Amino acid sequence: MLDGMDANARNEELMAQQEAYRAFQAQNLKLNMARGKPAAAQTDLSRPLLDVLGHDADLAASDGTDCGNYGCLEGIPEARALMGTMLDADPADVIVGGGSSLNLMYDALARHWMFGAHTESGTTAPWSTLDEVKWLCPVPGYDRHFTLLEAFGITMVTMEQDENGPVFDDRIRELVANDPTVKGIWCVPQYSNPTGITYSDEVVAYLASMTCAAEDFRIFWDNAYSVHHLYDDEGKRDHVADIGRACDKAGHPHRFVKFASTSKVTFPGAGISGLASSPENIDWIKARMNAQTIGADKLNQLRHARFLPTPEALDAHMRKHARIIEPKFACVLRILREELDGWGCSWNEPNGGYFICYTGPAGTAKRTVQLAKEGGVVLTQAGATHPHGNDPDDAVIRIAPTLPPLDELEQAMRVFACCAKMAILQR
Amino acid sequence: MLDGMDANARNEELMAQQEAYRAFQAQNLKLNMARGKPAAAQTDLSRPLLDVLGHDADLAASDGTDCGNYGCLEGIPEARALMGTMLDADPADVIVGGGSSLNLMYDALARHWMFGAHTESGTTAPWSTLDEVKWLCPVPGYDRHFTLLEAFGITMVTMEQDENGPVFDDRIRELVANDPTVKGIWCVPQYSNPTGITYSDEVVAYLASMTCAAEDFRIFWDNAYSVHHLYDDEGKRDHVADIGRACDKAGHPHRFVKFASTSKVTFPGAGISGLASSPENIDWIKARMNAQTIGADKLNQLRHARFLPTPEALDAHMRKHARIIEPKFACVLRILREELDGWGCSWNEPNGGYFICYTGPAGTAKRTVQLAKEGGVVLTQAGATHPHGNDPDDAVIRIAPTLPPLDELEQAMRVFACCAKMAILQR
Question: Where do the domains of chain B lie?
Fold first, then answer.
């Protein structure tokens, strides 16, 4: 407990941690908790997927489409149904994409950038023609979301996020209501990256109904972890309210675009993805997609849809993932409690998703990550949870428990705790 | 022979054709020669591809990359090698894409539109910031190329194409040399869509060396049919000179981007694609792709690379395609000769690719296509070979022989010939 220590005790503790650290260094560890990457044991769960379509398979989709030939821009019916389950959307409002939902988000933003956006009163001006475009970024958030905006030179407006979702204080409310260059917001609404929180019904309703100066304001709803529960018990599962129905009810039916993928369901980067929006937005998008692509790989769509033919099959598959990763989350949380209780740190205990978000005392995150690196443990870059890699408090570290085997994870967390303590004591 | 007929003979011939046409109509035919789509017998050639990666497969690429997990933006080494063969490029200069090379072309154009283009003197202004962007379109050409430019509002400058490739007359030379808003040209350099011609070495050298007012002028080299020969005999195979080496030699190393896909090698839309350019362009593209995507499906890359592990394996596979489609090309050509010699029409006899390009007397193409449709034979829309669907001579019809079975193709061509004659006689 840091709290009760006087200067002498702190000094002794620092020396003890430094000795422990040197012992870790002597082991030449090479451990990695940097990325939200499934373990080999998890991707192995989907190896049966590889047998679904053999040489003698029927390659016809349920509507007769030959999945081994041209056609079907929006995806085959059964793949739209699978992504509809993940997106909480009517399959008719779903477009199926390739292995990268990031690509769907980039394309969505690029379309608005180049061609404007669909609204009740027609297509708006291309966002590239505006002097400035602003975007709301709840923090801590997902680094790739920020990188995407950075590529377009979009001004990122950070806003707080609490256990209920993004916090719309007066500053943000007034900005959105009065500044037509504020064009959208990033949301990871369930098991958020990295804080693990799920938006409350009130926050979802507020997002849908809030007054926006920009008629073409867009909620980019990256529901990456919609079926990624850690627990079988329904009481320990989060379910975010659907932004689509909320927007419809609020009279802003075109305000949202939802995204998801099977990257953390089957094979990262070799799965399928999906986008859902209002029927009119989907038509608008398809009209532009027609010049862009012949559509996403239908054989992989068919493979996935036959492997996960029902919501129940999908849930059963996700439970197998949970059995592998839940003990890893438990391990991280146990060591955080054992080592860092009373050290002025905090962390969340999520019911799903891929991350635990650690917040140390201000001014310790970079130093902790640096020490861990020199001790053989790679963590996500400090600052990555904020736009331009700049965490003004230098406090947040995203911990990704899924990739290392359990024994390595335990060791990596001991190193992490040791480094966190050194950084706190040396502050 | 139309040439020798007097008015009476023409009238009799028209009545005879009209009677034949009514007989065709009575058969309620439903035949399709509209799209360059492989026949089922062709896609069946690739069914063994579906067994390449089963549940117990080694999913590691040659460099150790786990193809079932995140990573590897540019593609795995063996897939870059396969696309390198198709693109006539060093694998190090190749980025692997998904099932749609159209998507690679769209992305390439969209990147220039939003972010400018790499040149020796740095990245140029985003093309979207210019008052106008022009693009050279050799005609007859590929409708999807034109649709892509249309989506961006790019001004299409049509130019002639002869048996050696695009014709740079004084008007075009001066335009390219003096107008910096002329930013590029579409090229289908081998077995061109639809004329089947292959660019001469002189044309390739000219493209690479010509004076361009735009420093960021781009040759979009859609080498869609690079390995799609109809004949085994090397003397009856075309091979276009490489635009990459030509540009390098001419001192314009960044002027070109090459595209290809396996859509007409394995499964259309479920294959892999590739883009090749100068090392500096590739670096520039990758830096921007990093914000866009996590990369193309590596399991499908691995599947394809193991199915077609060498240039020889690729050629052997393409010979199987040729054995299926060469008789179809021969059938179309035979019937054109039998029926339309001396009728003021012309057509090409390609050594590869997917199309035969028919040119009737001016003012007959639309009518021919319309009559054929009402006779139960769907042809490519007349005009599709020109920007905005506007063939000023109304003369060109693209014939796609690959999809129908041989007996249906013969019947469809008899209908076509009958309709062409009626259109000519009624003109």
Answer: 7-33+315-426, 56-310
